[in-house]
User: Fold this.
Amino acid sequence: MSRETSRLLETAFNFTADDLYTNRNGLLSDEQKKRIESLNKSTNQRQITSMLIALFIVGLSGLIYYNKTGLQYLDLSKLWPFLIYIPILIIPMTAYYIKNKNLREGKISIISGSAQTSMLSIRKRGFTQIKIEGVNFLLSQEQADILKNGYFTVYYVKTGIGNRILSIDGG
Assistant:
C-alpha cells in the first residue's frame, strides 16, 4: 500500500499508524478507547433521556386513566395496557448493553475484502451503507468513495449503534 493511500485512509477514518499497529495486535489503542467511550457516553445519555421521557408519558397516561375511571385502589387488571410498556422500556436498554459487550471487553473484529454498495444502500443524513464480507458499515460518502476500489483489511468493533471502523489496512 502506498504512503499516499495510507494517509488518505488515516485522514478519512480518523486513525493513526499507531492505532493501526495496535489494532493489528487485536487491541484498542488508548486514543480509540477514549473516542469510543465518548461516543457511547453521549449515546447512553440520549437513550436514558428518551427512556425517562417515555416513562413519564406512560406514567402520566396511567395517572389520567386512573383518575378518569375513578378507581379507589390500584387495580392492576384495569391498568394492564400500561404494564405492557415495562418490557418496551427495558428490552432496548438490555439489548444495547449486550451489544456493547464487545466494546467493554475491547474485542476487535477483523475482516478482509472489497466494499460493496447496492442500489438499496441507505443514504440518510449524508451516510452510505456499505458491506464488506457480509458486515455492514454506515460511512460518509467520502469514506465510501475511498473504499470503492481495492481490497482492504478492516479492524472494527461491534457496538450498540452499529459496527465502528477503527482502522483500515490495504488499498
In short: The helical segments are 3-13, 17-24, 30-69, 80-83, 85-99, 101-105, 141-147. The chain has a mean pLDDT of 79. Strands lie at 109-113, 115-116, 123-124, 127-132, 135-140, 152-159, 162-170. The radius of gyration is 22 Å.
